[in-house]
Design a protein that fits this description.
This protein is an alpha/beta fold and 365 residues long. The protein has 9 helices and 11 strands.
Length: 365
């Protein structure tokens, strides 16, 4: 098999593995990373330098959610905290499920599926959490999630509305509206393209649709807006804030696809550019607060960094450049965890959200 055919096959396999929408399960914690079966993927097997870099991750201190910026590790078994469970005698927000028509979109109109057929009536699901006590039309903080993460994932992955109910009631988070958006059949185009286009789509089409449908309003304060995603959705979460820090300044990422998956003239190495060039070379640093996680058994974990297709190394390098530039960040390396690992998410999402908003007084919008 030629190198070109191998690359095409790897991309096909990867496209299937990266479907981490909450409606579908993420790969189990013991799933082998792409390329692991033959001792390496794109770029060949790990180099000695790669192995040394990964070995250092296992020696990181235990994660302290209340700590300041830094690099941490977390070990199995992963256990959901009390904030993941519904509690009695606290105010509960309401959840509405909308269907946003794709026809007429200036950004992502319907395209033919794999069967070659075009569904002109196609919609994308948008799940909206509205906190208890919300006054219609009042500008509120916003949490935007990709792949509708937190809406209806399989257990033990956490249910975001429950976490928000508990943390808002305890005044550990400001009352916020969560907008959980599913991708279309152009998921990689939407998420992996390194640009501000998807953020523009959300701002100009998704949020106005939600506002009109649910009678809500969103603050314009970028410090009161956050994005959350896993895998390619994690890359999209960073892209929204990176290209539009005037809209979003808080980013939470699981197994971020900061690899060379979809490239172009402005990003020759795709999202690998974030840690290779964008973050190190951008002055002054952007006013972002970022939380990152990756699993020991994540995608491409046995692939050489030279291939720019190793999620573990990519996320570790993200932490390195964020630290060097003085960003507010936390990086958590989860031992024995896979890609967008459900148990790891269950263990970390509530405290990660609290860390992400820790500098925001929980007094509402």
């Amino acid at each position: 098999m030629t190198a070109v055919r191998k690359s095409v096959l790897l991309l096909v396999m990867l496209a299937a593995s990266l479907r981490v929408a909450d409606a579908q399960p993420a790969p189990p914690a013991d799933a082998a990373a792409p390329g692991a079966r033959k001792g390496g993927g794109r770029g060949g097997p790990l180099s000695d330098a790669d192995r040394a870099a990964i070995a250092k991750l296992a020696e990181l201190p235990p994660w302290q959610p209340t700590a300041a910026s830094g690099d941490f590790s977390l070990s199995a078994p992963y256990a959901p905290p009390p904030e993941n469970q519904p509690k009695e005698n606290i105010p509960k927000g309401r959840v509405e499920t909308l269907q946003l028509p794709q026809a007429g979109s200036r950004f992502y109109p319907p395209v033919a599926g794999r069967d070659g057929k075009l569904d002109a009536a196609a919609t994308r699901e948008v799940v909206v959490y509205i906190p208890a006590g919300y006054v219609a039309g009042t500008p509120a903080p916003l949490l935007l999630t990709h792949d509708a993460m937190g809406a209806h994932d399989r257990e033990p992955a956490p249910h975001l509305p429950t976490i928000l109910d508990n943390l808002i009631a305890a005044k550990r988070l400001p009352p916020m509206i969560a907008v959980m958006v599913m991708p279309s059949n152009q998921r990689s185009l939407e998420y992996d393209t390194v640009s501000g286009k998807y953020c523009d789509f959300v701002e100009e089409e998704v949020l106005p649709f939600v506002a009109k449908s649910c009678g809500v309003a969103f603050t314009r304060d970028p410090a009161a807006r956050a994005t959350l995603g896993g895998s390619s959705g994690g890359a999209a979460a960073l892209s929204m804030a990176w290209f539009h820090p005037e809209r979003y300044r808080r980013v939470l990422v699981y197994s971020g696809t900061f690899v060379n998956l979809r490239n172009g003239p402005d990003a020759p190495h795709g999202a690998w550019e974030y840690h290779e060039n964008f973050i190190p070379q951008t002055e002054p640093r952007k006013p972002l607060r970022i939380w990152l996680q990756v699993g020991e058994r994540d995608n491409g974990a046995t692939s050489a960094s030279a291939g720019m297709f190793n999620w573990v190394i990519a996320n570790a390098r993200m932490a390195e450049v964020l630290k060097a530039k003085g960003y507010a960040y936390q990086f958590v390396y989860c031992k024995e965890a896979g890609h967008v690992d459900r148990p790891a998410r269950a263990h970390t999402l509530a405290p990660a959200l609290e860390w992400l908003w820790r500098d925001r007084v929980p007094a509402g919008p």
